[in-house]
Amino acid sequence: MGYVFGILIIIVGAFMVIKTEWFVSSFGYSGWAEEKLGGGGTRTMYKLLGIAAILLSLMGMTGMLGEVIIKVFGRMFVIS
Fold it and tell me: What is the 3-state secondary structure (H, E, C) of 31-63?
């Protein structure tokens, strides 16, 4: 079942990267992205979110995501 959700997320992420203009026309502009990322920042944000969704989905499907989360955030939850 995890692979089905992973593939769906990859498809949505690819759609976000390829059809960015549709997302902008459907959901509107992001003031934060335009301010922080410059002109065209909303489009850049949608593309970055799509790429992040694809990478996180691939990591989740291969079992790497749990290891990365433990390595990055593990020290915050150490029980002494």
Answer: HHHHHHHCCCHHHHHHHHHHHHHHHHHHHHHHC
Asked if 23 contacts 46 with a C-beta cutoff of 8 angstroms, the reply is yes
pLDDT at 23: 93
Q: Is the pLDDT of residue 42 over 90?
A: yes
pLDDT at 80 over 70: no
Residue 57, burial from CB neighbour count under 10 angstroms (0-12, 13-18, 19+): buried
Alpha carbons 77 and 63: distance in angstroms, whole number: 21
Amino acid at 40: G
